[in-house]
């Protein structure tokens, strides 16, 4: 759904930037273990076109890739002791929400440095488009926008080749806000062996409920903001196989043996119709998802809190602490 950590800045255009979905690349895709390179460089179909490593913790890169028609960026937040410790660290892939004010610097603005101060974890925060939905779209009129391929097949192995991370299931977590929360749930299910922890902060977990509201939202928002009239799932008829592959409530067994963390608001802002629509659907979808997890005896941690569709800093910090507890220790 639309990211809205600053409610006063919302508008209808931003409201279009909601959730995420993507073409299945095959659940059998497995990364080989890698030895971190001596220096960050190109590879895995990525070519660095801009970089800044002057900040001791927050390193920035911008890539050229055939999978995206422009040069997406990524922030890599390193632990305080990364440069002197020689240790290997678990890694969190943290995804931003949708909207014209959301990109890979979102969590730096929100306070991710404070949330992780002194903590032994690397946080990778990549571009996902204004309404990319962590997806390889059915159609695009503006060139390639294959965010799923970029994240899973290119960026993830590039990170593990260039930073001291555990290239294994127990070394990786994925989390996100809004559209990014959906992307996290989707990737954790479709690439079961990649992530031991998954978190959705105001991220929808059900695509088909309410006559497919989330699928329609993904199509409309992506067409308006990212694809020049193209769509994530296809219109007027959906690609049903893609919806099935991406829909968390249809992939319940894929969350077994993972840490699952869910947050949703219970009192959307009555003044802003899009906030109400966003969090109302998020809450209903997460409740459906939680019920299915309960029926399958899959443990999960969940919170329903006052307020609408925005990033809750205390929940992010709680989540990061839980991620560190779950993953392999540095």
From TrEMBL:
Keywords: Acyltransferase, Membrane, Transferase, Transmembrane, Transmembrane helix. The chain crosses the membrane at residues 12-32. It catalyses: 2 alpha,alpha'-trehalose 6-mycolate = alpha,alpha'-trehalose 6,6'-bismycolate + alpha,alpha-trehalose; an acyl-CoA + a 1,2-diacyl-sn-glycerol = a triacyl-sn-glycerol + CoA. It holds the Pfam family Esterase. InterPro entries: AB_hydrolase_fold, Esterase-like, Mycobacterial_A85_antigen, TAT_signal. SUPFAM superfamilies: alpha/beta-Hydrolases (SSF53474). Its EC number is 2.3.1.122, 2.3.1.20. GO terms for molecular function: diacylglycerol O-acyltransferase activity; trehalose O-mycolyltransferase activity. It is an enzyme of class 2 (transferase). It comes from the Bacteria. PANTHER family: DIACYLGLYCEROL ACYLTRANSFERASE_MYCOLYLTRANSFERASE AG85A, ENTEROCHELIN ESTERASE-RELATED. Belongs to the mycobacterial A85 antigen family. This is Acyl-CoA:diacylglycerol acyltransferase. The lineage of its organism: Bacteria, Bacillati, Actinomycetota, Actinomycetes, Kitasatosporales.
């Amino acid at each position: 759904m639309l990211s809205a950590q600053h409610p006063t800045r919302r508008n209808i255009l931003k409201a279009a930037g909601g959730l995420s979905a993507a073409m299945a690349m095959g659940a059998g895709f497995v990364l080989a273990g890698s030895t971190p390179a001596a220096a960050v460089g190109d590879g895995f179909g990525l070519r660095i076109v801009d970089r800044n490593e002057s900040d001791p913790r927050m390193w920035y890169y911008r890539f050229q890739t055939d999978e995206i028609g422009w040069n997406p960026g990524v922030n890599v937040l390193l632990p305080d002791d990364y440069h002197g410790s020689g240790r290997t660290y678990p890694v969190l892939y943290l995804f931003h929400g949708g909207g014209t004010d959301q990109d890979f610097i979102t969590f730096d603005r929100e306070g991710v440095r404070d949330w992780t101060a002194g903590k032994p974890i690397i946080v990778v925060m990549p571009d996902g488009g204004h309404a990319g939905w962590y997806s390889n779209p059915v159609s695009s009129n503006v060139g390639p926008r294959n965010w799923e391929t970029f994240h899973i097949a290119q960026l993830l192995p590039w990170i593990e080749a260039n930073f001291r991370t555990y290239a294994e299931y127990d070394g990786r977590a994925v989390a996100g806000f809004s559209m990014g929360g959906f992307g996290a749930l989707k990737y954790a299910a479709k690439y079961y062996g990649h992530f031991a922890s998954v978190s959705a902060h105001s991220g929808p977990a059900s695509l088909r409920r309410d006559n497919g509201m989330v699928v329609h939202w993904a199509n409309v928002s992506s067409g308006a903001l990212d694809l020049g009239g193209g769509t994530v799932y296809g219109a007027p008829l959906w690609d049903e196989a893609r919806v099935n592959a991406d829909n968390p409530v249809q992939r319940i067994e894929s969350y077994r043996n993972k840490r699952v963390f869910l947050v949703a608001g219970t009192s959307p802002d009555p003044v802003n119709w899009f906030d109400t629509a966003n969090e109302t659907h998020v809450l209903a979808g997460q409740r459906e998802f939680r019920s299915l997890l309960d029926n399958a005896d899959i443990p999960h941690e969940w919170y329903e809190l006052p307020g609408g569709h925005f990033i809750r800093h205390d929940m992010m910090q709680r989540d990061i602490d839980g991620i560190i507890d779950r993953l392999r220790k540095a």
